[in-house]
Amino acid sequence: MKGSLDGINVLDFGLGGAGPWAAVLLGYLGANVIKVERPDGDYQQRQLPLQNGFSLGYTDWNMSKKAFQLDLKSSSGQAAMRPIVQETDVVMGNLRPGKMGNIGMSYEAVAQVNPLIVHATCPGWGEEGPLADLPFHDGQSQAFCGFASLNGDAGGKPELFRHSYPLDLVTSIFFSSTVLLGLIARERTGEGQRVRSSHLASSFNGLISRIPEYWATGRVPLPMGSASVSTAPHQAFLCQDKRYMAVGVETPEQWEGLCQALKQEDLKDDPRFATNGDRVARREELAGILQETFLAKPSRWWAIQLDKNGVPYGYLYDFETLRNHAQVLENRFIELVDIPHQGKVYMGGIPWRFSKTPASMYAAPRPGQHTEEILAQGFKAFGDGARSDKTGNGSAPGKSVEGQPPLTGLRVVEATQGLCGPYAGLLLAEAGAQVIKVEPPAGDHARQFAPGLGSAESAAFVMLNRNKEGVILDTGTEKGRQELLELLKEADIFIEDWGPGKAEELGLGYETLEKLNPKLVYCAISPFGEKGPFRQRPGSELVVQMMAEQWASLGDVGEPPLRVGADIANVSTALMSFLGVLAALFHRLRSGTGQRVAMSKLGTLLTMRQVVWSAIGSPDEWEGAFTNPYTQPRHHGLQIGDRRYYVRPDTKTNMPEFLAEMGRRYGLPHDIASMEAKLRHLSLEDILGDAFFREEPYEQVAEFLAKHDFTVIPINDLRDALEHPQTATLDLVDILEQPTLGAVNVLRPPWKGPWERPAPSPAPMP
């Protein structure tokens, strides 16, 4: 069986991580992807570490592609590209504004050659604004958008994620989703599409469950160690055997289960901790009580008790544990792939499980490996997978009207709770679909998350469930199941997060629904995957983070673990689910048939950590951006005056010249070679320390660093980030009139296309 994007031809002009990995995802989904490089190659091919002399980072960002080198600044190169563009469905790149035009690949240029092209761009800072022409990397994004301000010790300094790419990959998923929206719009209208996104806008959307906290309270969120702002207890506890255990309570039932597991039923009836809001307000007091209890027995004892009582928990797993773990092996969350020129390389596994159009991966190329083949054959180099027709059979429910969002006319039934499933549903609504949210009689448990908006719903619930209709159904009764079944008979998409086997128990499994509604796209989301010993285990944001080794990128080695302040497990899985649903919808447009797509939070985070798995699998040397961070000091940024800044050298930075001037100007040691070697393992802020520039004016320091091609970006909190003039150019914030609450700020998705975006509408009332 072939992938959902079988026959779709993609030209990838991406650089760094975000653009190239977006094209990798399209390749996994079945597209024919050609990576277009300059004659001297992509700078990623020189990134450490290497395996058998080839960059592992380059391999990860270029799986399932063919590599093609061409000088597109020359007239001969542009002439050679023209017949390839005629065969192309998608041109995509994350270059700075105007750079695609410099190589003859602007939308206007390629649309003249191929009017049905989908042209997709994702510049770092966006297309305009005071920072638009600056370089952009994951570290800049972590600093600028507020991501780093949410990480660190409770109430402490902001901290950057040391393996510097989490927002690159969030951006990649948004970028590939933007491409899919363009393809669906083209399929439904018969018109070519120009679609855009940006790294910065995508990064803000990666914080969509945390930004409402600031808007609701007016207080700038601070780091919270391993704890969660929305529920309690939801943090890591040290056990008697000196092993940390992540415990994540998100529902009233789990709180009762925890009290029973710890044999502290008195806490269940304690008015100080009666509701989630009460427990969050007294988080430290409650954590002190629980920590004393956990220290009384070893972690294995508590694992047994928590498991018996249905409480999410998990250990801090490392790569050695994960690559041999039954849950990972049975679900193929980490794969060992044979790369002919490198040998066997560990990869994050395919994140989706499609029932009819399975995704797959094949080995990354050597830089420029297929240049002659592509010059001679174009996309025919992919053999039978290359297509020439550009539009499908029009099996969508009616043609889209020009200007309408791509999913207009489609109906979604979303039976999910919390953060992940509701965000996937919101993204479908923002793309034009009608979304019906199905809640149990007790309501979505996220309604009780902290902080609340006044005395009403939680801020996160209002943000993630706007633009939806609401219905209450009790699937524990025959009447409720029949009512849901009636909704699903006419639905285009169904999303559920009930866990493996639950839908089948209710008589609502995909095999049953497919007979009633063959066009249905069914998306099932689970914490840990549908196979293996953890398939029935409940999960939480912190538990999945810790099991997926995210803790290894924050904090100090051997010290208490820290969580990523953003809800990366929930948000990233929602994005992957959205992308998987779009791919299944695209296939349905061409075939007329739906299918089932399964996702898991653990699988998503292990997929997104894949460049680390590759780097530490069998590197030639323990060297580079994906190995050294395991033991590097924390990254808090460089103190300049009264603020912290992320300071990064450019590829043009002459490090010996910079260090020599530093020595003359500040009296540093003159052993330049030693300092340059040190900088490979430590950042500039690690070497200089907080006090070095504290007394100097920012303008003076910034001018000096800019002279040596360093980028200097403030480490913003959410207030500074959202109020910055560059953010205003992204047009991400809208106003929603919510009943009983009045005007509420909402965050819009990062994509833009030749269509209107739906007006914000209120979340369903209780």
Task: Describe the protein's architecture and organization.
The chain has 766 residues and is α/β, with parallel strands linked by helices. The chain has a domain of 61 residues. The protein has 32 helices and 25 strands. A seven-stranded mixed sheet has the order 14-20-19-18-15-16-17, with helices on both faces. Helix 1 packs across helix 7, helix 7 packs across helix 8 and helix 18 crosses helix 24.
Summary?
The chain is of the alpha/beta class and 766 residues long.
Care to count the β-strands? Answer: 25
User: What does the average pLDDT come to?
Assistant: 94
Radius of gyration: 25 Å
Specify the number of helices. Answer: 32
Helix content: 25-40%
Question: What is the secondary structure topology, with strand pairs?
Answer:
Blueprint: E1 9-12, H1 18-28, E2 32-37, E3 50-51, E4 54-55, H2 56-60, E5 66-69, H3 75-86, E6 90-93, H4 99-102, H5 107-113, E7 118-121, H6 138-145, H7 166-189, E8 193-196, H8 199-205, H9 211-217, E9 234-238, E10 244-248, H10 252-261, H11 265-268, H12 276-281, H13 283-294, H14 299-308, E11 313-315, H15 319-324, H16 326-331, E12 334-339, E13 343-348, E14 353-354, H17 371-377, E15 411-415, H18 420-430, E16 434-439, H19 459-464, E17 469-472, H20 478-489, E18 493-496, H21 502-505, H22 510-516, E19 521-526, H23 541-547, H24 568-591, E20 595-600, H25 601-608, H26 610-617, E21 638-640, E22 643-649, H27 655-666, H28 672-679, H29 684-688, H30 698-707, E23 710-714, H31 718-723, H32 725-728, E24 733-738, E25 742-747
Parallel strand pairs: 1-2, 1-6, 2-5, 6-7, 7-8, 15-16, 15-18, 16-17, 18-19, 19-20
Antiparallel strand pairs: 3-4, 9-10, 10-11, 12-13, 14-20, 21-22, 22-23, 24-25
Helix pairs in contact: 1-7, 6-8, 7-8, 7-24, 10-14, 18-24, 24-25, 27-28
